[in-house]
Amino acid sequence: MELIILIGLQGAGKSTFYRAHFAGTHVHISRDNFRHNRNPSRRQATLIEEALAAGRSVVVDNTNPTVADRAPLIAQAHSHGATVIGYYLATPLALSLERNRRRAGKQRVPDVALYATSKRLQPPSYAEGFDRLFYVRTAEDGTAVVEHWIDDGDIMPAASMMEHGRSKSCGDPSGAVCHPLGNAAESLLNKVRIESKDSGDAESAH
User: Is 55 exposed, middle or buried (0-12, 13-18, 19+ CB in 10 A)?
Assistant: First the structure.
């Protein structure tokens, strides 16, 4: 059982990433789905609790920009014995702004929201309690490239990690080799196409 925390700006492609990799296996929980709720954070916590209690894996699809934002999610997951996995979508601000401007209606947020999130955005760390961490960058051809995260700032492509047996970067103290997309997505490719038309995922400023 896993709790996956997506981290990145509005328009970074988080919801597209979820649909490409986890839609068939993980419950999708996002505050955008109940933004009119008086206490969206409490509603989110309730939905996560219900899913984990039922033994279902979860993806939390918000910007989750700070250590403080992520801490209660990590604690909640560990209280249920779930593996906590983080994906840091390092989509450039300019590209996120471009994608956001292509959105229609309420899916689009003011540019100022992206600038505000960018200023608050704190890269994740294993010190927070993550069991696995991955870095997702957008290649020139539009694909999302998943790489293992190393806290010292040294990023190595996942394929290279596997070849060199550096599985400890997956956060597995046993040294077992793990797939860059986690247990629930071992059969998925290391690259996924992020089409511009699909990148209009509705993500609030949270």
Answer: exposed
Q: How many domains does the chain have?
A: 1
Q: Is residue 205 part of a domain?
A: no
Pairing of strands 143-148, 156-157: antiparallel
Instruction: Kindly state whether residue 204 falls inside one of the protein's structural domains.
Output: no
Share of the chain above pLDDT 70, in %: 73
List C-alpha distances in Å: 90 to 41, 95, 188: 24, 10, 20
Which residues constitute the domain of residue 118?
2-198
Residues linked to residue 6 through DSSP beta bridges, in sequence order: 61, 87
pTM assigned to the model = 0.75
| pLDDT 10s digits, 43-93 | 999 999 999 999 999 999 999 999 999 999 999 999 999 999 999 999 899
